[in-house]
Task: inverse folding
């Protein structure tokens, strides 16, 4: 569990919350002593995730109608999206599964892993509050998970029109506590600085830098 804490950049004050979040019902059912599994945490995490995503979209997409916001939120909280997010932190490898579920491939089953991702969100919320949960969630949903927001790809497509040009991203610094790191990234066209950005992960900072470059080119608002 310490390895997972290192990956997510947060150390639990109550480690049993993390342990429960990683415990599938199959493991609890096979245990000789009563232990908690993650279904209740999954229930709570689903709501925490929904409000964080809704709040983010509401403030980022100020001119979008309710229907677009609803569709965007649905695309970011669906099972397939959560499974992809969970794979980024290798969550499946940390799950406590029963023998049958293990043999059946549960460690790589989208429903099992995405449910555990929601349970992990709830554990973070209960242990550290909404801001800790928000800091964990936002990097996943602000790194170009929708084509419209993938500024790195947009910038690359613009630059590729001239095969001689080369883009590179460079980390300029990082600060903040482990549970709320902020990374500063610069993007260069050949040797020329064309944008800077800050984010809660290196990928998010790269997206922000690419967006700034596109804005300076007059290609995005």
Result:
């Amino acid at each position: 569990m310490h390895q997972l804490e290192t990956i997510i950049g947060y150390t639990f004050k109550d480690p049993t919350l993390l342990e429960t979040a990683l415990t599938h019902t199959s493991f609890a059912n096979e245990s000789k002593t009563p232990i908690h599994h993650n279904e209740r945490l999954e229930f709570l995490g689903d709501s925490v995730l929904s409000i964080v995503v809704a709040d983010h979209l509401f403030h980022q997409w100020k001119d979008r109608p309710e229907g677009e916001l609803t569709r965007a939120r649905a695309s970011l909280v669906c099972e397939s999206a959560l499974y992809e997010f969970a794979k980024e932190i290798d969550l499946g490898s940390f799950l406590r599964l029963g023998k049958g579920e293990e043999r059946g491939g549960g460690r790589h089953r989208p429903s099992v892993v995405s449910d555990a991702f929601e349970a992990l969100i709830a554990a973070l919320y209960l242990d550290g509050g909404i801001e800790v949960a928000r800091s964990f969630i936002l990097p996943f949903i602000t790194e170009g998970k929708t084509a419209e927001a993938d500024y790195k790809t947009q910038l690359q497509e613009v630059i590729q029109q001239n095969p001689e040009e080369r883009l590179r991203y460079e980390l300029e610094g990082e600060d903040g506590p482990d549970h709320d790191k902020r990374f500063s990234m610069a993007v260069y066209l050949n040797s020329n600085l064309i944008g800077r950005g800050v984010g809660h992960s290196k990928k998010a900072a790269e997206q922000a830098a690419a967006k700034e470059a596109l804005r300076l080119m007059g290609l995005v608002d």
About this structure: The chain has a mean pLDDT of 89. The first strand starts at residue 167 and ends at 175.
